[in-house]
Design brief:
Helix content: 10-25%
Strand content: 15-25%
Order of helices and strands: EHEHEEEEEHEEHHEHEEHHEEEEH
Radius of gyration: 24 Å
Structural class: alpha/beta
Number of helices: 9
């Protein structure tokens, strides 16, 4: 593990036994466990949050996203979210819930405090530099999630496109797309949700991705969730970068999604070849703009079987305007806007000075799902199998206990906490 030997002005920073970076689901779960184990917020541990207020990434979500539309929020430990209003924006409901949890436990969350870098100037001592005050700690629990690192893949000619581009991170209101021709890029739940919402304001959406839709007719049960977590855990313990959520879970093929497929809304049109100033060239819809290729194995099976729930799909799917190329399956179609539903990457750049990334591009995580062997004293939550709210809650608890154990402390409340200075 690399370290930073630069002279540090220790007299000007605050020291805590444990610093939690992030106040979303995972960070609050970790903080709550530290509190229940007898550690005092603001004295023994601190929670740093880059946001202006409670809510984590949820506070930035668009107003049309409700808990009825989202995957939901798992209860924080010992603090159930009873009967949340599924009509109010999730950003408001979750922000209030997280804020109430902070008050309930007396958590003195330090915000806004965006962490810029974590270094290790001494053995078992971490220096956490933020855009405000700096801190030191004997252990660090990282719960920064992914929201601050949106992923936008590059395609040939993208730099020449002159229309408006949006990402899940910047999306706010479907009215921004009224009567536009919108290219929706991505194979995950965000993209399908965008397409369903856009139906209210435009008849002209084009859905593309780098792979065929991964429709999954399997019921999303706890057993199914455990199998998904096992697959992800196998990847991250080998140091491989976590794959996209949809590559692990698939898209729910249920009554609602089948209806939108039949209406021509959730119909996959192919793959991006390149962009021009006001158009996109696709591999798939050629030679006439009407071709509908594979919709992924699950939907293809239903179409071959003549499932009546998809009887109108071809009739309801728009024939794309534009023209062909000298390549038979290609089609050039005009677009006004691009909506990137291409996900996020884990926000771990502040740990680069510690060299925690493996040769595979990911972070090797121990079998407990939170311990980083390459950086003893650093614990990662909301990464890999713990990226969901239920996984983040469990990982937060594990990380808090592991951090206490790392410091050589008993979990009894009358322990004397070790400090280095």
């Amino acid at each position: 593990m690399s370290s930073n030997n630069t002279t540090i002005p220790f007299a000007t920073v605050r020291h805590f036994n444990i610093v939690v970076i992030g106040a979303g689901q995972a960070g609050l779960s970790a903080a709550g466990t530290l509190h229940r184990r007898g550690l005092v917020s603001g004295k023994d541990f601190a929670v740093l949050d880059g946001n202006q207020g409670p809510g984590g990434a949820w506070r930035h979500r668009w107003n049309a996203l409700t808990l009825g539309r989202a995957h939901g929020v798992h209860d924080l430990p010992g603090f159930p979210l009873d009967n949340p209003d599924t009509w109010r924006p999730a950003s408001q409901v979750v922000g209030e819930y997280y804020g109430a949890y902070e008050q309930h436990l007396g958590l003195e969350v330090i915000r806004p405090a965006k962490v810029k870098a974590v270094t290790q100037p001494q053995h078992e001592l971490f220096y956490i530099a933020t855009d405000g005050a700096d801190f030191t700690a004997n252990a660090v629990i990282n719960a920064t999630g992914t929201w601050e690192t949106p992923n936008i893949p590059y395609y040939h000619g993208l730099e020449h496109f002159t229309g408006k581009q949006w990402h899940t991170k910047t999306f706010r209101d479907v009215e921004d797309f009224r009567n536009q021709r919108v290219l929706v890029v991505g194979g995950g739940a965000s993209s399908t949700q965008f397409l369903m919402m856009l139906e209210k304001v435009t008849d002209h959406t084009v859905w593309v991705s780098r792979s065929l839709p991964r429709w999954n007719p399997e019921h999303f049960s706890p057993d199914w969730g455990r199998r998904v977590e096992e697959r992800v855990t196998t990847l991250v313990t080998a140091g491989k970068a976590p794959r996209s959520v949809v590559s692990n879970t698939g898209l729910a093929l249920n009554t609602e999604s089948l209806d939108f497929i039949n209406r021509g809304v959730l119909v996959f049109r192919g793959f991006i070849d390149s962009f021009g100033s006001d158009h996109v060239t696709l591999n798939g819809p050629g030679p006439d703009g009407a071709t509908i290729n594979s919709q992924g194995p699950a939907v293809d099976d239903l179409l071959r079987a003549g499932d009546p729930r998809l009887a109108q799909m071809h009739r309801n799917t728009e024939i794309l305007p534009g023209h062909g190329t000298d390549i038979h399956h290609q089609w050039v179609t005009p677009i006004d806007s691009i909506l990137w539903g291409t996900g996020f990457q884990h926000s771990l750049g502040h740990f680069d000075p510690l060299g925690i990334r493996s040769v595979h591009g990911g972070v090797v995580v121990d079998k407990d799902g939170v311990t980083i062997p390459a950086a003893p004293g650093v614990f990662l939550v909301g990464y890999g199998a713990s990226a969901s709210t239920i996984g983040a809650t469990r990982a937060g608890r594990k990380a808090a206990v592991a951090a206490i154990d790392h410091l050589g402390q008993s979990t009894e409340s009358n322990v004397t906490y070790r400090k280095l200075f």
